[in-house]
Amino acid sequence: MRITPCQAALAVAIALNLLVLLCSLLAPSAPPPSSSSSSSSCRHPAALPGVTVILRDFPDGPNHDVAATARSFSSLPGVPVLVATEVAPYPPVPLPAGVTVLPLRPQPHRPPPRPDLAVRTLHVALVPDGARAVPGLLRRMRDALEASSDATTKVVAAPVGPLRPRCLALDVDIKAWTARYGHAEPGTGTCGALDGAPAVLLLRTRDLFSLPFPLTRPVATSVSLQAALRGWRLLLLPDSFPLAPRPPLSPHEHWKAQNSLEKQRRALLELFGIKLEVLADGQRRWHGCAKDTPRCFGTIHAQTPQYLVAGRWTPPCCLRALRATARHVVAELEAAGVRYWLEGGSLLGAVRLGDIIPWDYDVDLGLYRDDLPKCRWLAAVLATGRPLEDPEGFFWEKAAEGEFFRVHFSRTNRLHVDLWPFYARPDGLMTKDTWLGHRQDVEFPESFLVPLVPVAFAGIAAKAPNDPRAFLELKFGPGAIESPEYPNPGVRSLAQDEQREPPR
After folding, report:
1. Which residues pair with 423 in a beta bridge?
2. Each residue of 349-389: pLDDT tens digit?
3. Which of 150, 324, 419, 449 lies 20 to 30 Å (CA to CA) from residue 79?
4. How far apart are CA 262 and CA 338, in angstroms?
């Protein structure tokens, strides 16, 4: 029987398939790929001993020292150097061989940036622009970190240049939108933050990239704020790195550099929700709303501002504006002889704290309807039907929601005091023409107002009903003073926040 070429080819193909099948049965089986290792691009590389240097804090424009700084640190044996930046340094600079640019800005045609995958060493050093390497100093910083007996010490710093940074204590209160600096405990060498001079910061790589904003500028401020929220401490060493001399900047270049740094700092604090910095000397730096900006929050629904839903209280800049508006309105009413009194939550704040309740978003004053014409600003609004701005920039208007008035911090910033006109019914109860359905919206005997008495409120003495406790318990129920609660506990209750304090 003759075998045709087609039959021979078929026989060969069958033999090859049988051979492949036999090999697959005899070979050891490979484990199925897991979800965490299905893509090598998403897998963290094994950590290696050593320190990776990251250059992040350098000025935009031509007045940086990135190339020379990278060259200095890349000369250290076995020290990888990364230049982390949103865009490559411009004007372009020749970086030393082996120095890698680490892009941080997402690009639509590239995978998302993963700087954590670019660092293969156990430790990382964040090096400021202009620093120069010192053989062995990075190793000593690493050894100091690993030798520390204090588990909260997560960062080791070494000064850059002849000036030594000030060692400060730092407490960050996210609920109050506030960072408070103080003087660090002397003799310990540990700090919450550094101020006044640049420094190299060394951390374990896993700690740096456990932060939600590991490489946000300014790096030292960013790391310090996030570290304070986690209870981390910073150890400041006596050794220092040299700072390269630079030619003096022109006045315009100096202005640009300072302006750029300030913009970075403001953007960082806005990102972190810090509206107030209380400095170690007691001075205050405000970063929130002002007369010429809108208030920090939008329209309020269900008596619950968005920030309260997020577990925060009224931003301190808003409280400051409310106090200023309340003091201004009280002064105008008293000068005009208008009978007024603190109402609702504002009276609660006065009795509890002598101030605005820390989560309140407006101030409420009651007044006698018959006294409205005595105040020139209210009389003008009544006569013209139009809002007006007084010489100090406060904005008076009739509320759109009903028969009451509002005084705003400014035409732009709508933080406000509500003025509620009351009048006496024949039976002696005080009533009004607009009720918004709030639980404190109840009629009350006029005897609470005869006489009115002074109470401390927002830095002044304001008028209040003569029996504040009875007045408040009539409006809010028994125990209102001793039992603080948010305006609408059905949406957000104070107990929820007490159970969910931010981790330290």
Report:
1. 431
2. 999 999 999 999 999 999 999 999 999 999 999 999 999 99
3. 150
4. 46
57: Cα within 13 Å, side-chain hemisphere: 24
Q: Are 491 and 309 in contact (CB under 8 A)?
A: yes
CA atoms within 13 A on the CB side of 357: 24
Nearest to 428 by CA among 445, 452, 441, 442: 445
For the chain, the straight-line distance linking the first and the last C-alpha, in angstroms and rounded, comes to 88
Q: List Cα–Cα distances, 380 to 338, 340, 402, 435, in angstroms.
A: 15, 19, 18, 24
SS3 286: strand
3 state DSSP class of 154: strand
Q: Which of 311, 268, 271, 316 is nearest to 296 (CA)?
A: 316
Residue type, 223: V
3-state secondary structure of 83: strand
Question: Residue 272, CB half-sphere, CA atoms under 13 Å: how many?
Answer: 34
Report the pLDDT value the prediction gives residue 31, as an integer from 0 to 100.
Answer: 39
Question: How is 308-361 classified by DSSP, letter by letter?
Answer: HHTT----HHHHHHHHHHHHHHHHHHHHHT--EEE-HHHHHHHHHHSS--TT--
Short-list 138, 183, 175, CA closest to 156: 138
Residue 324's CB: how many other CB atoms inside 10 A? Answer: 17
**Rounded (5°) CA angle 270-276-280:** 125
What is the pLDDT confidence band of residue 225, given thresholds at 50, 70 and 90? very high
pLDDT at residue 77 tops 60: yes
Note the Cα 100 to chain centre separation in Å: 31
Count of CA atoms in the C-beta half-sphere (13 A) of 242 = 11
- Is the CB of residue 207 less than 8 Å from the CB of residue 231? no
Give the DSSP per-residue string, 367-385. Answer: EEGGGGGGSHHHHHHHHHS
Query: Counting beta carbons within 10 angstroms of the beta carbon of residue 215, is it exposed (0 to 12), middle (13 to 18) or buried (19 or more)?
Result: buried
Q: Can you tell me which residue has the tokens 């008035």? A: 405
Output phi, psi for 241, to 5 deg.
Answer: -95, 145
